Structures are given as C-alpha cells and as structure tokens.
C-alpha cells in the first residue's frame, strides 16, 4: 500500500514539479539544470553539491525516482514556476502537496494567512487543501 502521509505525497509530487520546469523553462535541459542549480545557490534555497546535467533533470521526472530528487531542486523549481507568466499550476494532489511544501519552505511566514496571502492569485484555489496540509505538517515538525 503506498504511503499516504503528507511528506510521501510531497516526494511523489516532486517529479511533476521538475517536469513542469523542463516543459516551461526556456532552453535545453543542460541550460535548465544550470539555471536551477545557480538559482538555488543565489536565492539561498539550497546548496547543490554539483550542477546536475540535463539528463539528470530528465531522470528526476520519472515518478519511480522521486526519492532521488534533492529538496533544493523542488524548492527552486517551485520558486521559478511561481514567477512564470504562463501561470503554471499543479496537475494533481501529489504535485499540489509538493508545490505547497516547497512554497512554505521557501518563505518565512508566521501564520497560515500570511502563507496564503503571499501566493499568486492563480494558485490560491489549486493549492488550498495542500497548503493547509503543508502548514499542519510544518507546525507539527516545529514541535519536535
């Protein structure tokens, strides 16, 4: 039976986040990998040990390889996707959970209303349930 915890959904949704970045980003896969890694470093969303290749990014789109995706890559892809004029949205619940998790990890917010208020308007409805679940998950982790 597949895991149904929130974090398991996040992990299962990360390949779709990376796939959206590859589909909507402009350039070949090696260039998009470089942009992802450099953005992570500059925006302080993570410290990639090395810049992945385009082939690695393509491999991360495989749902079976979801555990291989470093969180910096998902966080950075969401950071970039949210800013795109194409206004991309998650396609399913797992991907929405990944977007919401990354959204919260990328921001310093003190309460749930601030997290929602910071979302672009086009993402508020698609991320409604996932953002609530991400908030509960994040608050639970703060108690540890």
What does this structure look like?
With 144 residues, the chain is mostly helical. It contains 8 helices and no strands. The protein has helices at 6-24, 29-42, 54-60, 71-82, 93-105, 112-118, 121-124, 128-142. α4 packs across α5 (93-105). The radius of gyration is 14 Å and the shape is globular.
End-to-end separation: 27 Å
State the assembly state of the protein chains. Answer: single chain
Q: How many helices?
A: 8
Hey, roughly how much beta strand do the residues contain?
A: under 5%
- Tell me the radius of gyration: 14 Å
The number of strands is 0
Helix/strand/pairing class, anyone?
mainly alpha
**Outline type:** globular
Helix and strand element order: HHHHHHHH
Low-confidence stretches: none
Q: What is the residue-mean pLDDT, rounded to a whole number?
A: 93
User: Major beta sheet, specifics?
Assistant: none
Proportion of helical residues: 55-70%
């Amino acid at each position: 039976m597949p895991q149904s915890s929130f974090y398991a959904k996040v992990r299962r949704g990360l390949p779709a986040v990376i796939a959206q970045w590859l589909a909507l980003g402009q350039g070949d896969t090696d260039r998009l990998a470089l942009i992802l890694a450099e953005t992570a470093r500059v925006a302080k969303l993570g410290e990639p040990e090395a810049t992945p290749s385009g082939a690695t990014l393509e491999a991360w789109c495989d749902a079976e390889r979801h555990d291989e995706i470093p969180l910096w890559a998902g966080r950075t892809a969401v950071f970039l996707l949210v800013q795109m004029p194409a206004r991309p949205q998650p396609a399913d619940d797992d991907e929405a959970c990944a977007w919401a998790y990354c959204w919260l990890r990328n921001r310093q917010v003190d309460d749930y209303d601030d997290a929602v208020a910071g979302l672009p308007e086009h993402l508020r409805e698609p991320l409604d349930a996932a953002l609530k679940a991400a908030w509960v998950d994040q608050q639970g982790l703060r108690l540890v």
